[in-house]
Description:
The structure is a single chain. The chain has helices at residues 2-8, 28-39, 56-66, 84-87, 89-97, 113-129, 149-156, 168-181, 188-197, 202-219, 225-236, and strands spanning 45-49, 73-75, 101-104, 133-137, 159-162. It is α/β, with parallel strands linked by helices. It folds into 2 domains: 2-162, Rossmann fold (3-Layer(aba) Sandwich); 168-236, Helicase, Ruva Protein, domain 3, CATH 1.10.8. Strand 3 (101-104), helix 6 and strand 4 (133-137) form a beta-alpha-beta unit. The longest helix is centred in the last third of the chain and has 18 residues, at 202-219.
Amino acid sequence: MRGMRQLILPLGVKSQATLEGYYPHPNAEALRAVLNLVAEPQSICLYLYGPGGVGKSHVLLGAAAAVAGWVPYIDCGDVTNPFNAITAPGTFSSLAEAPLLCLDNVESWSGQRDKETFFFDLYNERMGRGQPMLLASRRSPQFTDWVLPDWASRVSAGLQYALRFPSDAERSVILQEMAQRRGLQIGVDAAHYLLRHYPRDLGALDHLLSVLDARSWEQQREVTIPFIRLCLAAEKS
């Protein structure tokens, strides 16, 4: 049954995302709201929005993993025709009854009345049951081109948080925290060097830290700027 649900609902688990693994700088307030929702489920529609790469999917996947039972994560951008597969009565009931429902990239369904109606019906059913929803989008609901006024009104009235990229100072702190979780010590100067000479995407930095961790262990060397230069050169070759 679970395999069938995963086929119908593209769960799209890309990694072992956890809420603990999401670095809160500078989105601590939004993360706190999600943690509260997971700890004490209530009749709330929580809406996260921000540019790609800011960690929205990570938070949704982490929230889904943190709740006991089957918690569907649906990437709306991955749901293609036939749309009726996801609106079948049995599937709709499962989505309505789940302890938490995580819907990602919801803006990809804007302007499509049948899909917005599905959102609206699901919202009403879950709020009536006191069951929370966690939504994510690149745009705030007020600036999304919804065509169903009732849905636009409902989703715009919910709790919203804008996620943003960390500043350079915050990114340096995150990088050092990422290293510490691996048992790797990186000084401030080395962290700044990495941020100047390597892509600042946290996923790319995490990959580089894994390389540095392995090579420092193999060679029994500290992670200094000269050592980082060697590793970067080896990565590019």
